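Module 6 notes. Inverse folding takes a fixed backbone as the condition and produces residue identities as the prediction. Think of it as a translation problem where the source language is geometry and the target language is the twenty amino acids. Below is one complete input and output pair. Work through it position by position during the lab.
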């Protein structure tokens, strides 16, 4: 089994603020803006009755994002953020250079995505959300998917997936793939094949007291090759993750697989 640490959600270029760690521990990853994704606007997506736009506006009153702005809901793991077609299941699309990179690594069926992104803790104040004072910016693993199916042709897209941002005609004009999950994880048989994770320190990649791109990976990762990285990524102060790149692929050893199980369970 190959694993890809897959960077998703708001970043310093798209969205420009951290996704919120909500007071209940929910890791609410914010999808990046996408003018072509006509099916989803920030005001149309909701968490417990509040739109994503309202959440963004409370956290960043000067945001340039507008309520009607469209967004790239991908990976699509949270079933209750919008109404769903019959048969819906989690999904994730990839295209272009990032997909070519996955294919070059032989990434495919029964391989595992671990989705991570930029987050910061929030709190409720006078009925509104705000970032908790002095809360650090961190990279944290917020979700996962083990690949059960790879949809690589427009003709193979099922009806429940027609509104996925990677199912539009423009994406099929180039190399494109939509992944859907196994029913259950092959290495944790009673665990669903995809899901969202809540906040837990064991899921935080960022080393305490460091910038979010400095990770505190276990020492056994020194024995594992990870794409976009090398032995030079290991510094005295921690593991320096790559500033660019969406998919960091590695083949886990036994210790890394135990680490993954602990993160997911």
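Target side of the pair, the amino acids:
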């Amino acid at each position: 089994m190959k694993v890809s640490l897959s960077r998703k959600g708001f970043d310093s270029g798209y969205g420009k603020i951290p996704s919120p760690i909500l007071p209940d521990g929910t890791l609410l990853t914010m999808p990046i803006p996408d003018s072509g994704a006509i099916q989803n606007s920030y005001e149309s997506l909701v968490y417990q009755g509040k739109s994503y736009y309202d959440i963004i506006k409370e956290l960043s009153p000067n945001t340039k994002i507008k309520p009607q702005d469209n967004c790239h809901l991908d990976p699509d793991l949270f079933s209750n953020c919008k109404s769903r077609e019959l048969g819906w299941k989690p999904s994730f699309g990839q295209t272009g250079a990032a997909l070519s990179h996955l294919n070059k690594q032989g990434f495919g069926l029964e391989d595992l995505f671990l989705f991570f992104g930029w987050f910061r803790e929030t709190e409720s104040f006078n009925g509104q959300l705000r970032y908790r004072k002095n809360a650090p910016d961190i990279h944290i693993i917020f979700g996962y998917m083990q690949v059960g199916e790879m949809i690589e042709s427009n003709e193979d897209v099922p009806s429940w997936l027609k509104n996925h941002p990677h199912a539009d005609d423009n994406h099929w004009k180039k190399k494109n793939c939509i992944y859907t999950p196994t029913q259950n994880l092959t290495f944790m048989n009673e665990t669903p094949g995809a899901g969202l994770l809540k906040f837990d320190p064991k899921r935080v990649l960022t080393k305490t007291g460091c910038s979010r791109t400095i990770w505190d990976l276990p020492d056994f990762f020194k024995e594992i090759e990870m794409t976009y990285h090398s032995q030079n990524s290991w510094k005295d102060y921690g593991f320096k993750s790559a500033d660019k790149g969406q998919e960091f692929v590695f083949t886990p050893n036994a210790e890394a697989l135990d680490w993954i199980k602990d993160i997911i369970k």
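Reference fact for the lab report: The helical segments are 52-59, 96-104, 254-264.
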